[in-house]
Automatic annotation (TrEMBL):
InterPro entries hit by this protein: Pirin, Pirin_C_dom, Pirin_N_dom, RmlC-like_jellyroll, RmlC_Cupin_sf
Protein's recorded name: Pirin N-terminal domain-containing protein
Cited Gene3D superfamilies: Jelly Rolls (2.60.120.10)
Top-rank taxon: Eukaryota
One Pfam family hit: Pirin
SUPFAM superfamilies, alphabetized: RmlC-like cupins (SSF51182)
Cofactor, how bound (note): Binds 1 Fe cation per subunit.
PANTHER family: PIRIN, PIRIN-RELATED
Organism, scientific name: Dactylellina haptotyla (strain CBS 200.50) (Nematode-trapping fungus)
Domain Pirin N-terminal, residue spans: 34-133
Domain Pirin C-terminal, first and last residues per copy: 189-294
Length: 319
């Protein structure tokens, strides 16, 4: 892990990117007994290319995401606390702990399960972020793959003694992230700022970008105060964004900045299937139901963690 300390923040951007809108993360049900706060993939913000969905999940015992399919997209899961087990029909399996990430490319088709590790009494809650990202047309039919990134591998930079930045994907204050984690160009930066701290973060030209706040209050571009559980969608004007935590605040701010390169292509989405045309979606349903064209390995397959999950739920209902 690379860690770098700097004496002061970089120059403030003038003008910064404008604020297009601020969208509350609406709490909703998802999966099997799970609750999430969703800020992309809602009527207020259907998508922000290449981003299709952003969920801030809070999973209790007995909740999870048993066997389910994907096609035509990538998912990025960032475990903030607790741990999540995953398993898919290609034979990949593993666990991501607090601070770890999983980059999954569904490509032509994958079926997998994501189940929280059993909660230890007094232990941390299972909390994290999951982002769905559209795949460019040329990669819609690529082979599925997983890539895990351990928290210990993520570079960290401290522009001041009040700021910590985890450079998961992209660049911040001269620190580059680990490369080749996802096919779609995406930046993901995790910030923690104490009261009185500030940052100025450049963003790639012509990319869509947003800020998602998880705790505390931030001031964006010197004027807009934003509380936790909000998505701040930025315009494409300007070169970056300025964020500060007022010295009068009583809580540290915890937030992420994401940016992605939008593809010049149509998006037709039905749940976890993302294609270019309605015809492609109909064909995806046919392929999934008939176990063909990428879903051959589904025939007779069921994840072990999914079986155990259902057994635990049945036992808890009987008790």
């Amino acid at each position: 892990m690379t860690s770098r300390n700097m004496s002061s923040p970089s120059q403030i951007f003038t003008p910064p990117r404008s604020i297009a809108k601020v969208i509350p993360a609406v709490e909703t049900s998802e999966g099997d007994g799970a609750r999430v706060r969703r800020s992309i993939g809602t009527p207020q913000l259907r998508r922000l290319p290449p981003f299709l969905m952003l969920d801030h999940f809070f999973l209790k015992d007995g909740a999870g995401f048993p066997d389910h399919p994907h096609r035509g997209q990538e998912t990025i899961t960032y475990q903030l606390s607790g741990a999540t087990n995953h398993e898919d029909f290609t034979g990949s399996a593993g666990t991501i702990q607090a601070g770890d990430l999983q980059f999954m490319t569904a490509g032509r088709g994958i079926v997998h399960a994501e189940i929280p590790a059993p909660h230890v009494p007094g232990g941390p809650d299972n909390i994290g972020l999951q982002l769905w990202v559209d795949l460019p047309a040329r990669l819609k039919n690529c082979e599925p793959r997983y890539r895990d990134l351990r928290g210990s591998e993520v570079p960290i930079v401290h522009p001041s003694d009040k700021v910590e930045i985890k450079v998961i994907s992209g660049q911040s204050y001269g620190i580059d992230s680990v490369k080749d984690l996802a096919y779609t160009p995406v930046w993901l930066l995790h910030f923690k700022i104490q009261p009185g701290g500030e940052v100025s973060q450049p963003l790639p030209k012509n990319w869509n970008s947003f800020i998602y706040t998880m705790s505390g209050n931030i001031t964006v571009n010197g004027s807009k105060r934003v509380e936790k559980f909000n998505n701040v969608v930025l315009g494409q004007d300007g070169n970056g964004v300025n964020i500060a935590v007022d010295p009068s605040e009583t809580e540290d701010a915890d937030f992420v900045i994401l940016a992605g390169e939008p593809a010049d292509q149509p998006v037709v989405q039905y749940g976890p299937f993302v294609q270019l045309t309605e015809r492609d979606i109909y064909k995806t349903f046919e392929d999934y139901q008939e176990h063909k064209n990428g879903f051959e390995r589904l025939k007779g397959w069921e994840s072990k963690i999914g079986k155990e999950f259902h057994l635990r739920r049945r036992h808890s209902f009987r008790v």
